[in-house]
Batch of 4 targets.
Target 1
Amino acid sequence: MTLQHYLVISAILFSLGIFAVLTRKNAISILMGIELILNSCNLNFVAFSRFVSIPVDPENIDGQIIAIFGIVLAAAEAAVFLAIILAIYREFGSIRPDEVDTLKG
Amino acid sequence: MEELSLKTFIFYGFALITIASAFAVVSVRNIVHAAFALMVTLFGVAGLYVFLQADFLAATQVIVYVGGILVLILFGVMMTSGRLEMRIHIQRGQLLLGGGISLALLMLLLTVIANTPKWENLTDDGLTLKPTTERIGKLILEDKFLLPFEVASVLLLVALIGAALISRKEIRD
């Protein structure tokens, strides 16, 4: 395997996540798109730390630790996101982002 | 050589599973189906972590994402979606615009990946890492990542309290 295999997979995951965030009309689908994007970022971190460090120090795993922090952030983000969605659903009776427009001038 | 080609075969299998199910996540109309497709994607990424010899990270991915975040997402679907909201509505113009933007982004990324000479011909064939769990523990708990680790724990506490505060029923007096 080469680094570019992983980068291409990660790029495809990232674009699919962006596509979900841009086109979906349901806040939970948008959250799924964000999770895809975060996964592609983590994959990039691990792949770069694996391949770029081979000539210098093959046992370097700093990128994996960054990916672990990424997973922690994703967990916190999902919890807060779903709490906000629940509050919005109670208030508006819908979780379609374009219907929640109270702040619109 | 025989073993190597088997490894390549399994790698492409994982890559295919990951990409196909990610495509299902963004194209399936039923949100519960999308959540289960997301589960397959997360497993596929965990498999790719195994190929990158990140054993601890692969286990963490399965436990936290599949066991935690996906269950959270399914709870969110359960608590906010009536029978009508299960289906995802998409407008045609938005689909074209979003598809165009993400396709352009993909082309840009692939061009950069293909044209960066520094990233070419980096291969890890025949190189095996030692198990990573012990080193990750040392790096996080006594080495250079101790401060970020503590900050992450404070962040988790903040997120926990914030989520509980935001989602509780408001008491009006």
Note: The mean pLDDT of chain B is 85.
Target 2
Amino acid sequence: MSIKATLFPIFMYAILAPLPLVSGEYYTHVLNISFYYVVMAASWNLIAGYTGQFSLAHHAFAAMGGYTSALLVIHYKIPILLGIPCGGILAGAFGYFLGTLCLRMRAIYLGLSTWAFSESFRITLSMSYKLTRGDLGLSTPRLLETAKAFPYYYIFLLLAIVCLCIMYKIVHSRIGYYMRSIRDDEEAALTMGVDTVKWKRFVFVTSSLFAGIAGAFHAHYIGLLSPVSVDFNEMAILLIMVITGGLRTFAGPIIGAISIEILSELLREYGEIRMVLFALMVIVIMRVNRDGIVGIGRTVLPRIRYSTTY
Amino acid sequence: MDSLLLSQYLIAGLVIGIIYALMAIGITFIYSIMKMINWSMGEFYMMGSYLQYFLVVYILGPHLWFVGIPISMAVIFFVGLYIQRFLLKPMFVGEMERKDEYATVITIAMMVFFRNLAVVLAGPNQFAPPDYASPTYIGPLPVSGNRFVALVGTLLILGLFYLVVRNTWVGRALRGSAQNRVGIQTAGVNVLRVDQIAFGIGVSLAAAAGALLAPIFLVWPENGAVATMKGFEIIVIGGLGSIPGSLVAGLLLGLVESMGSVLISPSFKDVYGFGLVLFLLAIRPTGLFGERQRVA
């Protein structure tokens, strides 16, 4: 890793660190949530965008991480910082299971089975009342003593930057090429000697690990977990974020998650119209420019540069 | 267990099963022709139930509820035609890569769109249309009038659907394009037009289910979610693209749910369906009537 590549994340952290001083308490909270969504969206992009496995169970892995960590902390009194990786590992293990189940499936069956997985997980959560308190919701211990958003900002910023660095390394390594080759043509990839089984499983495990860890951090920040977080709407929000930013691009999910989260807070007074608008935006993006904001940037920026130089 | 009570639950399970099957046939019909899953099917169900409620309560009056059902079906049919034309037809025009990804994203976006539009327009409240009929008897067994009406309505609609697909020119074109999209074009059929009609018919079946079930499961923005869940369970059990499969699986699901709730516990009602799905996937991955999937 070159010095530039090492310094860039630290540089980003330093630039973003003073932001809560200007944003105020409430928008600091919004930023925390949007960093959570950055990790979720980017890890879903890893599996759906780069590997082409259009999984619809990503939100379930986040809830799995959250519930695992919270229940371990509550019942076995383990430290929260140990509980969070445990949540991530369990989500990763289920990712391995789901990935193995979906190895032979093509797009439509994959979507249906991952959807069925998340729905049965949601029903199990609300049914196993004694353990998870069902629809009443489980109140989780907070990571820090305080409920103020300010100190959590640094945790979530660190989480987002570390996760993004790891994902960047994965995508820009040999594994990234394997993933893209599986997406573009699985048979051809197999012929060229890519171990498709191994790498598909790897991507399922990695992305659900990220989702589990992010979900656990989120649970210990919000202080409440409920089966609503496994509702399909949650997956739809992730999808809206990734498509708006740009599927299959690295910057897309980051831009999409932050802008959609902040936009939906700014427009909060308009209620459900926000979601109508976001859905319309996704439809328009899919019809006009399928690479989202990043794609628009890629086509518009060179033209501006062209027109200014000549 | 009283045999009368047991047979009552049996009837209830069969009735609800055949109505679930209506929904599933819509999904599988669209799949067999366009080779895509319509994730927003539940929202067409929802729109059907809203239309029916609106018609019955404000325009037709409670006695003319049976006029409302064909009207809401027809309206949703045309809505489906235009949605297909503007949003899904581009899938087949030109060289589009990754068609299923496009279809999934568009239909999930449609789901979010219609759900929230319903909340914006009519609020998040539940509405209950007036009852269609008073309780009746099948032989010695008492049956809720609404369920009985829904059963008769479903059977009529399915019969009509069967006749159209079996005997008319359009039906032949539909079956032909389900078998071979390229071959049917050499016979002079405009496949893009057939897609449009198939999508319209599929979503209007969902709307019919919504309109028929409106007094039983009520009308609210997310009432399609449960219907979609049942529909997808059924097509996985019955096999994607098989209409008889959907019927049989629908009946099976209705029976399992109703028997499970009476024999084991009613609070796990939604789990039995998934149990059945997992069991069948383990012994027969393509579903009961599904053809083996061709690789590449």
Note: The beta strands of chain B are 136-138, 141-143.
Target 3
Amino acid sequence: MALTGLFLCTFLVGHLLGNLQLILKTGEEGRRAFNEYAYFMSHNPAIKILSWVTYISILFHAIDGILLTIQNKKARPIPYARNNPSKNSSTPARYMAVLGTLVLVFIATHMANFWYKMKISEEVPMHSFIVSVPDQNGQVQSQEFYYTHNLQLIPKDDNFSVKNGTDLYMSKMNIKIGEGYRDLHTVVMQFFSKDNDSALFAVLFYVLSMFVLSFHLWHGFASAFQSLGLNHKKYNAAIGYIGKGFAILVPLLFAIIPIIIYLK
Amino acid sequence: MAAKSINITLKIWRQKNANTKGALETYSLNEVSTDSSFLEMLDQLNEQLINDRKEPVAFDHDCREGICGMCSLYINGRAHGPETGTTTCQLHMRMFSDGDTIYVEPWRSRAFPIVKDLVVDRSAFDRIQQAGGFVSVNTSGNTMDANSLPIPKDDADKAFEAAACIGCGACVASCKNGSAMLFVGAKVSQYALLPQGKVEARDRVLNMVRQMDEEGFGNCTNTGACEIECPKGISLENIARMNREFLKAGLSSEK
């Protein structure tokens, strides 16, 4: 639990840094930066290995947590008629299993909303943009182009098709001529945008989930060190403060991103 | 402080034996001196019950001076009652007020089956101790003087603090998971810190933890409840030390 928990803490930092690109850069520049980041995350071999370690860690952390909780419940078949646990332990520490289950529910919905659309169903459209120029007669001519690696101008029409997620092929000759990007940025923006009827619920659910995550980390961060045997007078205070700072800062930064998108 | 008397209501777990179902029974007890200890109050209740020709309440006790680890009792939702750093026998009725209702329950743990009323069987702790909580001493006539082995003062103090565990079971009783890790951590630590304990160090921690799991105790989730409720103030540091010893032994043991 401790090792997977601490690994997932480092995953949170990485994920957060990626998400922050949604609000740090705006307009087309932000869209490009985020989609390039998303491309990197789904194509870099090292990241691919890391993502599998993450899936396995989440599963192991959840399954081991459930098994341990079942054992722990069995260890006290008859509950106390009167119990006063608030006198000797913190509330998040006593509700780690409940908090963890809620976090897992969030992860499932979160992956269904973004990960599944990006990686499995490939519902996420290609990143494209429209170029409008006036011709000799003063008529505005518009054409839609894919946003590609090396800024190759490949028009979005029947002559070109998308294969393997982001590869751009000449439809007739079946030759790869370039590589585009999936427009995850727009999917995320629309998901949390005011114009979307379900966005308010999505934002509220996201923010509440981050509160739950915060409580889970409040106990979990320092607890992992204790489980690994790292309890030392010199470092305990530092681990405690860093853990509590981490538990507040990371979920807070995650939570403000959908709020900012919604309020835009 | 002048002694005064209080009238209290007691809700006490009564259970005939391990095979029957128990229930909370309510008793009124008047004229309890605030100078009496909690166990003396129970003695007073038992006198009243005997006079009424009723079965007295069975509860564990021995030294009544806080060092034997025999007394237990989950009082008003806390192991050894509301006072920290004390066993039930050292808890006094001055901690309670006139008209109070006091819940008295046995330790609740699958590994501590109820014998009768408030008495539980804590032999699981003995079996853990027997699994590895010892050192081999050469008795062939060439035994070394203990003081000939230099031991750093800090280590000696920490070993002594760990050895202060009286095995009362309050850690198990107050842990939401019914975990015995503070007890086992203390018993592992008291030897792990001393040169005499090095010989069996690897087998000790593996065997004691295995026995702990076999007895049906829960797992530690580091809530820290045990450390707060421990009448001897055994530190969570001992659990971390046991975890270190366990990792080290697990990696290097060939068993």
Note: The longest helix of chain A spans residues 233-263.
Target 4
Amino acid sequence: MSLHTEALEGGFANPVLGAQATFRALMDAMSRPGTIHTLGTDAAPPHPLGVAQGAVALTLADHDTPVWLSPMLANATLKGWVGFHTGAEIVASPAHARFAFLASGEPIPDFLGFAAGSQDYPDRSATLVIELPSLTGGPQFLATGPGIKISTQIALQGLPGDFLHRWRVNRGFFPRGIDLIFTAGSDLMALPRSTDLQALGG
Amino acid sequence: MSELATYNFAYLDEQTKRMIRRAILKAIAIPGYQVPFASREMPMPYGWGTGGVQVTAAVIGPEDTLKVIDQGADDTTNAVSIRAFFQKVANVAVTTKTREATVIQTRHRIPEEQLTEGQVLVYQVPIPEPLRFLEPRETETRKMHALEEYGLMHVKLYEDIARNGHIATTYAYPVKVEGRYVMDPSPIPKFDNPKMHMSEALQLFGAGREKRIYAIPPHTKVVSLDFEDHPFEIQKFAKPCALCGAHGVYLDEVILDDKGGRMFVCSDTDFCEERREAGHVGELGVANKEAAE
């Protein structure tokens, strides 16, 4: 398959209902942080963008939302795929992006490099969509905050060692801050800026 | 049938839905903060729930079951027409039963029955800004929210006490969400405020004319503003519902004649009907035939 056709294929077979189903999973994930949602989506973005990542892009990105692709994702095929399917502009600077997509195993850039919104308009902030090897089986964190009944445990694999510190800095900016969506294949979990994390165990 | 006048699923175009969906996700991430959105013209006038309809249209899918209530009733004009609208443009299942619904669009009430996980309550909001009647300038109220400067709201509640001896606000009673944003719960009676606190359901608010969307995620602290010596209190009713005999529910006054006759009945029609079907009878109620036989 040529690069050209790869960029044209892999959208939702039914764009209206595909986007609706993906959004409902996202809305559930964002309103109940730490819960894992498996998308039954037919989105098939070109490698190495994950299935859930691709579905999120198709559901939320358009000409109003500049997209930043991490170095591993910023190849001609994927830029073409995002451009063709969503119409979103691909930006070189993370600070200008409303959505940022990062591949699995890639270093996660400083959160401070992304738009955190202003104190007046905290909604003008970036959402990072980060692919991980798995959403379970990693070091355990205890999550508390809106959307969580008492507390819940999350165990994301493949996060950088200083993630907890970086998340607390982001949490400290509230109501400003970035929101995170973690994906692994067709699974996704969200971590809105309102969630507090603590390390569990050693 | 003519295919000339068909609309996209749930009426709105996809770009509009994406814009609303992005606003909803940010609203959930910042509980109580009003996210501006590019509200569209809808085939109904402002004040009839265009904000709620747009939120519902962006959220609803073919597997959803929709309930629409207006002042607690499933059978009032606004509720009937919005329900018919979504039946027509989204072909969704509709119900009047609170527990069967996955999406409930409401105006001025929260159902009496406790909502459960997975349900979405969509409020129609006329004036989303709780500080608007105290400070008309948007630039100023925005700054007050940014700086968490809510002294003015407490002054207003204090003046209520100074004039009336108690806090006289009975509906759209301001709340603080998760200790940060002061929020207008829409014109629900203050009776319903405690139901917002730690609700199992996701609560979304849409203000069409004012172009704002805000949200309360499930299990979120929602505290009605008050003073230590004048704690928040909900309305109490002297008598139970005249039709079903329910205590501890919100009642509407119904005028019976021109000689001062009146009765108080449940504002939540579904709740009242279900109780009557189960055989409960109030002082002016007629016993359910099957239950009586």
Note: The longest helix of chain B spans residues 14-29.
